[in-house]
Fold this sequence. Notes:
Layout (H helix, E strand, L loop, with lengths): L9 H12 L15 E3 L7 E5 L12 E4 L6 E4 L2 E2 L4 E5 L8 E4 L5 H15 L19 E7 L6 E3 L5 E9 L2 E2 L11 E4 L5 E5 L20 E3 L2 E3 L9 E7 L6 H17 L7 E3 L6 E3 L7 H10 L7
Antiparallel strand pairs: 1-7, 2-6, 3-4, 3-7, 5-6, 8-16, 9-13, 10-11, 10-16, 12-13, 14-15, 17-18
Amino acid sequence: MSSPLDLTSILAVKLWLNSALGSGVPSVPSAPVIVVNTNVALAIAAGSQAVTPGSMANIAVGTNLAIDQNMPQEIVTVTAVSSTTFTAVFAMAHAAGATVVLSTDALLPDLITDASAWWIRQTGRGPQNNSIPALSPYVQPVSYTENYDGSGSETQYLRNFPIQSVASLIVNGATIPQSTGQPQTAGWAIDSSGKCLVMINPGFFPGFTGNPGWGGGMGFYPTTFGSGYKFFSGNQNVQVQYTAGFSGVPQDVFQAITEIVALTQKSRAWLGLRTEAMAAGGGTVTYDNLVIPKRAQRVLEFYSRRAIVG
Length: 310
């Protein structure tokens, strides 16, 4: 994978496309699938250069390679190889870490990264300001510091899940301790769903004499049923530092992104085309205008954040 955001791979996309064109059985491709997917360790200067990639797999004399992504990308032809290097003539300079793929796959790294970033936004994950993150919570757990409007209850849903750990929780300026042990002590805990924090208030707090609210510097709130912790209603009055995400791309997400990218790659051949007449009166072919496959849409809905109404 060429980006830490990537939720699938070039190989997976090519295997999916190849099986769709061949036997129709994903495990039985219609032809061998050749993949070059590596990076260069050092910067490349313009001109004839010997380059050391991370892997020389499937790179041979005459192989056409796409170097880099987006605007610096160019296609070069390999003129010589050794066990660790390939030589080609470069029209442009490239920074260290530039991607190296087959020229026929030149668009796939960008398509994969774009679809992966889109998935983060569509499911409501990542940074609160919706910027493109450096790391994906679908690839690995990521640390976040976020502010929320207090829910007014003992439950506060967070933007990213599953929640793995919490470094600190501050409500109305008071630091809330973690609830620990059995019997439970007062404080916050991660809900079993992994999507929210809950306040644990195991009973009354005898001797509390503070005023309503965060009185007496104790961080307790006297409720109808006794004193306890709460996510008070307010504007940006809850701050939480936490880590959330998956330890590896979930299999259903991997497959969904694979199919989304494969559909995008395949549909380039019939942009704007809805119906095509077959030769010798063999009928017509009608193309679907889906943006994403229906199966991928169901996976997207499962991982999307939901607003709590009530």
